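Attaching the record inline, Q. Sequence:
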Amino acid sequence: MRLHKLFTLVFCATTLIAATKNKQRLEDAAIVLEEIMAAPDKGIPQDLLDKAHCVVVVPGLKKAAFIFGARYGKGYVSCRQHEGKGWSAPATVRVEGGSFGLQLGASETDVIMLVMNASGADKLMASKFTLGGTAQAAAGPVGRTATAETDALMRAEILSYSRSRGVFAGVALEGATLRNDLDANKAMYKERLTTKEIVRDREIQPTAAGKRLIAVLTKYSPRQAA
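Structure, as predicted:
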């Protein structure tokens, strides 16, 4: 009986810690997106954000000191819903590996990815996919009025950006993998849900912290899915 109570206490404490971490990370993601989009001349181009099917925000992606160039972190993806329902509840994604070009040497980097078409969104629904491998990716242009003029940018399924030490720029995340994080999703929604279940298949209600991220997305791009 004592072992059972101890197990229950440990389980409850672990669940509470995970939920707290999710809450803080979601709030950080909302702040990152708000700060980047509020920059008058260094933000994400408005026309690209308005065309994006999904947005991924990873606050504080960390560099693994023991592996040169390796990165790891957690973030959130939200996708536009049909029938005027706005942005979906956020699903947790894990980001691992990849080279970050100009950001090498930085201890933490905020990352934003725009998923630009249905093909990219479909790949995002998989349990795992690799940028530059199963999904074509490119560094996104910077500036609220900039446009994607090159063929490479027009063909890209995912456009990526990073902010480190106050510098915001497009960055190619070649080799980085994105995975579902079922445990983190369970901490938020009480079920081990996949990305696809949260953003597409089921009408999942966001948490209070999740609503803040959705509010920022809606503020800067209220357009509904086509």
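Residues 2-220 form one domain. The chain has one domain: 2-220.

More tomorrow.
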